Amino acid sequence: MRAATHPDGIVDLSVGTPVDPVDPLIRAALAEVADVPGYPATHGTPQLRAAAVDALARRYGVTGIAPDAVLPAIGTKELIAGLPRLLGLGAADLVVIPEIAYPTYEVGALLAGTRTLRADGVTRLGPESPALIFLNSPSNPTGRVLGVEHLRKVVEFARERGAIVASDECYLGLAWDEPAVSILDPRVCDGDHTGLLAIHSLSKTSNLAGYRAGFVTGDPALVRELLEVRKHAGMIMPFPVQSAMTAALSDDAHEDAQRERYRARRKVLREALRQAGFRVDHSVAGLYLWSTRGENGRATVDWLAERGILAAPGDFYGPTGTDHVRIALTATDERIAAAAKRLTAD
Ligand SMILES: Cc1ncc(COP(=O)(O)O)c(C=O)c1O
Fold first, then answer.
1. Three-class secondary structure assignment of 4-34
2. What's the angle, vertex CA 142, arms to CA 141 and CA 144, rounded to 5?
3. In what residue span(s) does the Aminotransferase class I/classII large domain sit (predicted)?
């Protein structure tokens, strides 16, 4: 691999895996409950559910969630990949995913055997009545944010056609240039969560990718249905992780500190990309710079590899992503500085 042969080592910006430490407060919460011989509850502890409700209100202004409408996920990837099946969808159903998307939405549709359609707006859907619409704001990979009006239109459309909206809010806590709102925000859904699911991961905002910690919340009836299936399928979050997740959701200081780390890295990398002649599109939030040199993204991946930098080709995320590359902010300050130096050296 060309990037690996750089004398100062590779800078891997191709994946969004966190590199900063897990906060001591979270580690302690995990370690304190190592002696747990019994089965944990699929629904999570009452403390976990209450902490999730409080965190959503405190951090994002989402109100009106009943604690019972919170369900832990063993990382949100498994929940997303399993959602169409868990909801009982099949060949007769249509799942809508974003034009340029995190690949797991399509994986979920494939596993359930549904039809899939890529669309960023409801007008693209014509007379179709989808069973499920995946949203992802802020987006991986583009960093695009869907505003209140856009989200309202999707909710209205979904209600008219009987669709469920699953909003993947993995990057909601990492908004830089535009505010990002939840599908459950009262300005979006008028406080009515019927047919709506919000999916929250702690992987990025709390550096808990290694713990596998996330949850889904929203429509109490849908969450109850998911709980029943997951209970019988054994999709149970380990008790120590439930404890760690409760601690992480109850503390905002570590999350704020992590956000500031990413903010600083983004500034360095964005400026270096600009100086190197890249254009960064969207990317107003989230952990990626959706970048182009006005050529095929595969050529850009090669150009970066010559400088020892690894990026993901845009076509991996959808056919309209061919001219872009996704550059992640998830590297140490030292590696981000190394990337910036290489980008601006020519
Ligand atoms: C948009 C999006 N959703 C969900 C996930 C899954 O995160 P996890 O399974 O770690 O909760 C990721 C991870 O990169 C992501 O980018």
1. HHCCCCCEECCCCCCCCCCCHHHHHHHHCCC
2. 130
3. 10-343
User: Is the minimum distance from the CB of 18 to ligand 1 under 6 angstroms?
Assistant: no
Q: What is the pLDDT of residues 226-255, one digit of tens each?
A: 999 999 999 999 999 999 999 999 999 999
Of all helices (H) and strands (E), which one includes residue 198?
strand 196-201
Is residue 327 within a helix (H) or strand (E), and if so which, with residue range?
A: strand 325-328
Give the predicted TM-score (pTM) of the model: 0.98
Task: At 168, list the tokens.
Answer: 């993947």
Query: How many Å apart are CA 290 and CA 101, to the nearest integer?
Result: 12
In contact, 20 and 258? CB cutoff 8 Å = yes
Q: Token pair of 276, please?
A: 């190197």
Please give the structure tokens belonging to residue 51: 């902490």
22 C-alpha to ligand 1 centroid (Å): 17
Distances (CA, A) of 341 to 270, 291, 335, 344: 12, 17, 10, 5
Alpha helices (H) in 190-293, listed in sequence order: 220-233, 239-249, 253-275
**37-41 own/partner pairs: CB under 8 Å, 24+ apart:** 39/236, 40/236, 40/237, 40/238, 40/239, 40/242, 41/236
C-beta 114 within 6 A of ligand 1: no
Whether 2 has a pLDDT exceeding 80, the answer reads no
Measure the CA–CA gap between 304 and 154, rounded to whole angstroms: 38
